Amino acid sequence: MKDITLKITGKQYSADQEEDQMEFVTEGKLYERNGALYLIYEESEFSGMPGCKTSLKMTPECIRMKRVGGNAFGMDFVFEKGKRFQSSYKTPYGIFDMEVLTNNVVNNLTPEGTGNIFIDYHVSLGGMTEGRNCLSIEVTQ
Fold it and tell me: Is the dihedral of CA 116, 103, 47, 31 positive or negative?
């Protein structure tokens, strides 16, 4: 397991294409198991999910993201280009049905711990809100 530094940039686009961006730097862990790379990091207050642990399982076909944080947060997504994935999103305000449609996934992360990940997806949260998100993670040692 390698110690790494991550620069995480998240962009959200509303229906009227207004952009909201957040960016933070955090420490994480990277390891390889059974042909997949795993990236694990703690969310911060800045991300709005303090106490959550995020893990990414990366294979050539897709990226699976899991977030857990005590009783307040929980989700499990799969990002695979051109495919829809339905799941539940547990928040402090209740559990919501969630659907993601992945527009693009780029995974240039090496087992040595350098490179980046980019995910562009549309999200629908319980039919209440819809939008487009882009997640970029740059990894260094």
Answer: negative
